[in-house]
UniProtKB/TrEMBL annotation, chain A:
InterPro entries: Alkyl-DHAP_Synthase, FAD-bd_oxidored_4_C, FAD-bd_PCMH, FAD-bd_PCMH-like_sf, FAD-bd_PCMH_sub1, FAD-bd_PCMH_sub2, FAD-linked_Oxase-like_C, Oxid_FAD_bind_N. GO terms for cellular component: peroxisome. This is Alkylglycerone-phosphate synthase. Homodimer. It is an enzyme of class 2 (transferase). PROSITE patterns: FAD_PCMH. The record marks 392 as: Important for enzyme activity. The keyword Transferase applies. Signal peptide: none annotated.
TrEMBL record, chain B:
Residues 141-270 form the Phospholipid/glycerol acyltransferase domain. It holds the Pfam family Acyltransferase. The lineage of its organism: Eukaryota, Metazoa, Chordata, Craniata, Vertebrata. It is found in: Membrane. This is Glyceronephosphate O-acyltransferase. Keywords: Acyltransferase, Membrane, Transferase. Pathway: Phospholipid metabolism. It comes from Gasterosteus aculeatus aculeatus (three-spined stickleback).
Length: 622, 654
């Protein structure tokens, strides 16, 4: 659908504007790695950016994988020489050799290059159930002129998020219940019409934004006999207006993060909201799942950024009548919209705060002798309320993981420097390589303030034994979060399955929860017969006044296990149980979805508060 | 029977227990000095650096928990915080251990000498040691030995030193501190001292619990304490005390450690050093205060033979597994963890159940010697008045019968199979020659039987004679008691059948349940496990061909009467004890009976009845039994305690 009203997507200017994503994704332009502006998507005018400057076409299959993460042209593989390589041209790491990855995988998971578990190459259309169409609904829909499709591929694409079990099933070519129809509304009024028709004809709607849900929110209920319609908002992707006086912008909810930032950048603004999934996740999804962005320390989480929301519910359109910055008339309707995860309605338009683009950005990193010291440092930074735009603390395992992802260095000099650095830290400073951990930092603002701020943070770090470890390490840390989802696909080619989950927890519990959850994962895997100790790691990714957000990764080699996905889910369940027992929340930003349905009872019993998150909104709305 | 599967694992044939190694053997063959000076490098918990006691103290003093309580106490009493802080330091100095390797080496040397002269062997299950070693490296560990002798904690440290394991820190009663020099020696070998009672002292409790938790959380050393709280004078396991168990479980429940492993250790002595001391104490002859000179006098025990010791290190029990599905740990999420709080009802019941499980694990792994069976038999015979004693071969035959029965009930019996039964019996009898006498091929307890012709004796002399007989009986009973846990459930069932008015299963169950409830201060009976215990008892008695249990009825087999009679006699002394306490309370208790007066009064009452021949068991003189029965009657509401300037006991005549 042509939908190019507002964001004049001239590719000529885009390269200068794409600072945010570029910071994480771009190819190395220069070894000096302050975020120099370089293009991410648009370099060389690949077909990935549609002619109107938008990244997501109606037919997602044109550029994206049907059974894995992200773009079809981008993936990790082991080349003929047995070296790991990242294909494509989209990311900074693209086209590079990653020499240490193979050894790391073999050492961490006990994988063997000979033992592969490859995915089914293509979707068998016959595996997809024929659609259950509600003829009356389809007839009336036709008369509205809203485009729709019941093509098998279109439907399968909208039947899943990126939970492990969803991707695992797709790789095996298994498709469960999928939506019977996909509609692409082009504007708010289209959604109003669709919802009206759905009510009239008793059809289920599942709103679909970017499809990056990791909480099973997009899964169609197996037992549903009515026709299920997926409402794909991806074509509602315009910036309708920018109000420079009030520093707000009004957007359609289907716009994905990277487009939103790029288009705002063209006018010299940004929202500063950067969840790790921002390449694909949509604004509506953020609102519906109470998303959190990497730079929330400066810009705030989605609930701080949203000024106004329009949501279409079966009872009509819900919205506030003004754009006042704060109101005392409660309860605030935003409180039931945010975190409703698509169960109450479809978010169609959002007004958000915008900020002038930062003048200067700088990455940084600090090495700590151990995780305890690192957490103490973060706590102090939070106490003094001087957290940079982003501050993250990776544990030792993740630090080593990050190291395994270092691309091949071309010059002798660089590798000599690396060696020297390592020598200094481990031998001269006496850091134990099996204990040390690293904090990555991102500063943003005007140059002078950034440098001042940087000094303040490094001074605090020094009190906790932290040593500044360079911008490179910092930047690579952030890159990791963008490529990790691609890495999971590589792992799955070699019998490794993994997942991430997150929580928020009071400060005094941070160390305990990290230790206990990691240990619980290891113990559960051992009890369930996993031969090789799982990879179980965490990082503290956000700091707040009263606590922190902790992000866990775990993965293991499932070779020889009869029902790996089931086992995996049991371990994950145990890990969540451990989180709750240690005073953590069910989720900091992923949302509850259906993954956590098992906890519904716990939540009702009043002890656990439901938290929201990152992506595409969904769940049936009838 | 539906229950048969559930208890199949109790079948001794299936229950694989580890083998034992004698550690004294090596001591007899190589230099003790070299042993005491050996290279001692235990593997530590996750590689923590060993912690100096001064460092430990400062960690405790700086903890949030103590800060909070100090502030609170200072606010409540109006004292300066510095002043409270000083008190805290003083408490800590009084309490803290100061483990020194040189002292440990000194003990290693002297104890080697002492052990070798006292005991034939000290047998340890080395697989248990290996499990312990692994546990110490993976988790904070709590050692829970059974407590039958002063020897226990020295022995434990000695063993851990021998096997190159981290030495434990041991919770010891303050009374040891009274023994000047020795108290300090114990402190330097890893003991820390706690006051016997400090109920209301918030500050003391805070220091104490923080001290234990700090050691545990950081995994500096295994924490050792006695779940039973004190030495059991009767060799029955005592009802567990929960205070310390609560403290060591707390770091897990609050998420401060991933897990805590608790290792029950069963130490069984073939002959207990304090044998007659205990009996005297139970009869009201006061125990000498622990003193260095007392210990010195006790050296005459060194010249006697005390047989062998078996030490069984049980399977480490994960507190995490115990709590799985039992405890909702989220309850600790809403209050900062450094603020002390009373445990909820469900935590209390969880700790209580765990404590019972652990004591039962201790009981289960307790090694029984043949003498235990002989003592049971001889006591029963003495009670029915076999004045001339039992022929040796008859006793042997009965012992073999009892051996087989107890094995079927799952007893961990150490019966030397390479010897003939009569050799086994006579060697047991000779080890315990102080308690039994063999003359003209007849065996009986070594009670003083003066010929009847001496003529009338004064009441005092009669009483004295009675008490001296009671010393022998109670000593013997303490050996029989070692086997009580094996026979307890079947014996309760046997007595229930005996007491029930019909064969109806429900009737028998009710009677079982009543007895079990009444005796729950006396024996280790897990709270709320009446049905399981009943089924277990049925299963065992059916398996051994004693009973038939149908849907409705419980029937005694023809050949089951012997077993049943034996089992009933096992509990009989206790039943009679409770009856006599009951009678005393009904007949003699006046309005003004205080708890303090209770023991002397009932003792007088019982002596009177014993001398008059109205009571069969001298055992009922045991103050342990009397206290337990009073506690049971209080619990059951038959007696009420009225708090006041003096505590009065009021009896309800119901």
């Amino acid at each position: 659908m042509a939908s190019n009203s507002s964001g004049s997507g001239s590719q000529g200017r885009a390269p200068q504007r794409l600072r945010i994503i570029a910071g994480h994704l771009q190819r190395p332009v220069d070894v000096d790695a302050t975020v120099s502006a370089a293009e991410c998507k648009a370099q060389g005018g690949e077909a990935d950016v549609a002619s109107d400057g938008k990244s997501v076409p109606k037919r997602r299959q044109e550029i994206m994988k049907w059974n894995g993460w992200g773009y079809s042209d981008t993936k990790f593989l082991f080349n003929k020489k047995g070296q790991a390589e990242f294909t494509g041209k989209r990311y900074k790491l693209s086209g590079m050799i990653i020499p240490a990855l193979k050894e790391w995988m073999e050492g961490t998971f006990g994988t063997n290059m000979q033992h592969k578990s490859l995915a089914t190459p293509a979707l068998t259309r016959t595996a997809v159930q024929p659609p259950t169409l509600n003829e009356a609904f389809v007839e009336e829909l036709k008369s509205t002129g809203v485009p729709f499709s019941h093509d098998a591929e279109d439907r399968v694409f909208r039947a899943h998020g990126h939970c492990l079990h969803e991707i695992f099933a797709l790789r095996e070519g298994k498709v469960g219940r999928v939506p019977d129809l996909v509609v692409w509304p082009n504007c708010h009024n289209d959604v109003v019409k669709i919802v009206e028709l759905a009510c009239k004809h008793n059809v289920c709607l599942i709103p679909y934004g970017g499809g990056t849900s990791v909480s099973s929110a997009l899964e169609c209920p197996q037992e549903e006999t009515r026709s299920i319609v997926s409402v794909d908002t991806s074509q509602m992707n315009r910036i309708l207006w920018i109000d420079e006086k009030n520093l707000t912008a009004h957007m359609e909810a289907g716009i994905v993060g990277q487009d939103l930032e790029r288009l705002l950048n063209e006018s010299g603004y940004c929202t500063g909201h950067e969840p790790d999934s921002m390449e694909f996740s949509s604004l509506g999804g953020w609102v519906a799942t109470r998303a959190s962005g990497m730079k929330k320390n400066i810009y705030g989480n989605i609930e701080d950024l949203v000024i106004h929301v329009k949501m279409v519910t079966p009872q009509g359109v819900v919205e506030k009548s003004c754009q006042g910055p704060r109101m005392s008339t409660g309860p605030d309707i935003h409180h039931f919209i945010m975190g409703s995860e698509g169960t109450l309605g479809v978010v169609t338009e959002v007004t958000m705060k915008i900020r002038p683009m930062p003048e200067y950005q700088k990455y940084g990193s600090v090495v700590f002798p151990n995780f305890e010291q690192g957490v103490a440092c973060l706590r102090e930074v939070a106490r003094q309320r001087c957290a940079p735009a982003s501050i993250r603390l990776m544990d030792n395992e993740q630090f080593k993981f990050g190291h395994a992802l270092k691309p091949q260095v071309s010059s002798m000099f660089t590798s000599f420097l690396e060696g020297l650095k390592k020598f200094y830290i481990t031998k001269f400073k006496g850091f134990d390589p099996d204990c040390l951990c690293v904090a990555t930092l991102l500063f943003e603002g005007n140059r002078e303030k950034v440098l001042q701020h940087e000094k303040q943070v490094y001074d605090i770090a020094a009190k906790f034994g932290g040593l500044a470890a360079g911008e490179d390490n910092g930047q690579r840390g952030y890159m990791l979060t963008f490529v990790i989802a691609y890495l999971r696909d590589l792992g799955m080619d070699y019998y490794v399955i993994g997942e991430s989950f997150e929580t928020s927890v009071p400060w005094d519990r941070v160390l305990d929860i990290c230790r206990n959850v990691k240990a619980r994962i290891i113990r559960e895997c051992k009890d369930k017969g996993v031969q090789f100790q799982p990879f179980s790691t965490c990082r503290v990714t956000q700091t707040y006044d009263a606590g922190a957000c902790v992000y866990f990764y775990f993965a293991f080699n499932y070779r020889g296990l009869s029902d790996p996905v089931h086992m995996f889910e049991e371990v994950e369940h145990a890990a969540r149980e451990e989180i709750l027992a240690n005073g953590g929340s069910l989720s900091h930003h992923h949302g509850a979805g259906q993954c956590c349905a098992a906890w519904a009872e716990v939540m009702e019993s009043g002890r656990v508060e439901r938290c929201g998150t990152s992506y595409s909104a969904d769940t049936t709305m009838c | 029977m539906a229950s048969s599967n559930a208890y199949a694992q109790r079948d001794p044939m299936l229950k694989k227990r580890d083998d034992f190694e004698d550690i004294l053997e090596e001591r007899r063959n190589s230099s003790d000095l070299r042993y005491a000076l050996k290279c001692y490098t235990p593997a530590l918990y996750k590689g923590v650096a060993p912690c100096k006691s001064s460092m430990l103290k400062s960690m405790v003093l700086q903890s949030d928990q103590l800060h909070y309580v100090i502030q609170q106490v200072s606010k409540e009493t109006g004292r300066q915080t510095d002043n409270v802080q000083e008190e805290v330091s003083a408490i800590l100095d009084e309490m803290a251990h100061s483990l020194q390797l040189s002292t440990v080496r000194f003990f290693a040397f002297t104890l080697s000498k002492i052990f070798k002269s006292l005991f034939k062997s000290i047998r340890v299950n080395e697989e248990g040691i290996q499990r312990l070693q692994q546990a110490i490296q993976d988790h904070p560990v709590v050692l829970l030995p059974s407590h039958r002798s002063y020897m226990d904690f020295l022995l434990m440290s000695y063993l851990l030193y021998t096997y190159d394991l981290t030495l434990p820190v041991i919770a010891a009663g303050m009374d040891f501190m009274g023994m000047k020099f020795v108290g300090e020696m114990f402190r330097m070998s890893g003991a820390f001292f706690i006051r016997r009672s400090f109920g209301g002292n918030k500050l003391y409790w805070a220091v104490f619990s923080e001290y234990v938790k700090t050691m545990l959380k950081n995994g500096f050393a295994p924490v050792e304490f006695f779940l039973e709280g004190t030495r059991s004078r009767t060799s029955k396991s005592l009802i567990p005390k929960l205070g310390l168990l609560n403290i060591v479980m707390d770091p897990f429940l609050k998420g401060e450690v991933f897990d805590v492993h608790v290792v029950p250790v069963s130490i069984s002595y073939e002959r207990i050093l304090e044998e007659t001391l205990y009996a005297r104490e139970l009869l009201g002859i006061p125990k000498p205060k622990e003193s260095t000179s007392g210990l010195f006098k006790a050296r005459k025990v060194l010249s006697e033979d005390y047989g062998s010791i078996h030490v069984y290190f049980g399977q480490p029990v994960s507190v995490r597994s115990l709590a799985e599905g039992r405890v909702n740990r989220c309850q600790f999420n809403l209050v900062p963890r450094h603020i002390p709080g009373r445990p909820d009802e469900d935590i209390h019941s969880f700790v209580n159940d765990s404590a019972y499980k652990l004591v039962r694990a201790q009981e289960d792994n307790m090694v029984l010697k043949p003498w235990v069976l002989l003592a049971s038999l001889l006591l029963q015979k003495q009670a029915v008045g076999q004045e001339q004693g039992t022929a040796l071969d008859e006793l042997t035959a009965q012992a073999v019968w009892l051996r087989d029965l107890s094995r079927q009930y799952g007893a961990f019996l150490h019966w030397p199979d390479q010897m003939t039964p009569s050799e086994v019996v006579s060697s047991s009898l000779s080890l315990h020659r102080g308690l039994v006498r063999t003359c003209e091929g007849k065996v009986q307890l070594a009670l003083e039987h003066e010929g009847g012709a001496v003529g009338p004796q004064s009441a005092a002399a009669l009483e004295e004679k009675l008490l001296s007989q009671a010393v022998i009986v109670l000593s013997c009973a303490s050996y029989r008691n070692q086997a009580l846990h094996v026979f307890l459930r079947p014996a309760l069932l046997a007595s229930a059948i005996h007491a029930a008015s019909s064969n109806q299963k429900q009737e028998v169950f009710n009677s079982f349940s009543f007895l079990r409830n009444m005796f729950s201060n006396e024996f280790i009976l897990c709270p709320g496990a009446t049905v399981q215990d009943f089924e277990e008892a049925c299963y065992l008695l059916v398996k051994t061909g004693t009973l038939q249990v149908t849907q409705k009825e419980v029937l005694v087999n023809e050949r089951g009467h012997r077993t049943l009679a034996f089992l009933v006699s096992m509990l009989d002394p206790f039943l009679q004890g409770y009856q006599v306490v009951c009678r005393f309370l009904c007949e003699e208790a006046t309005e003004t009976l205080t708890e303090k007066q209770f023991i002397p009064a009932i003792r007088k009452f019982i002596i009177k009845h014993l001398l008059a021949g109205r009571l069969r068991y001298a055992e009922v003189l045991s103050s342990d039994l009397q206290k337990n029965s009073l506690a049971a009657f209080l619990r059951l509401g038959a007696v009420e305690k009225i708090k006041g300037p003096i505590e009065l006991l009021i009896v309800f005549h119901t």
